[in-house]
Design a protein that fits this description.
Length: 171
Amino acid sequence: HQDIDIIAMSERRFYSTIPGWKKIAEADFDSRSSIYARPNLEIRALDTAPLDPHEANRIQTQLVVIEEKFLLIHTYIPPDVPTSDRRDFFEAISPIITEIDLPFLMVGDLNTKCVTLGIHHVEHHAYFEEFLDKHDLTVISQGIPTRGEASLDVASVSYTHLRAHETKANL
């Protein structure tokens, strides 16, 4: 696909490289989630050391800045990670997002069956709903099931933040 510039892949187990793409960021344990980009794209990986304590729970995150205008967050949370550890992760990443101060897209396999993410889900995860509200995120994956009736793979974007940056750029 010539119109795709970035691939964020969770549980890539067998793909260490993709011909014609450069690997930008990777979690080199467990599921080996990664972000790949076309070679002509200006993209840089950010240090994820503040999130390292969450790797003990196998939560993997890559942060990349695209064209110095946009932040991409790619997260994989294994299904068996307890709610308290998930909450701690979202509390830890929140100030990082605030400090970077760019519009952002969060994608990944969150394995979170929250009603916010899919019509077939019955669980409420207040920590996740608060995270979405705090950062004015809109779930754009529309609750489309990705495994059975569950919507585990998620895409959400900070539309308000994006519009604010567009307005600043047009002044």
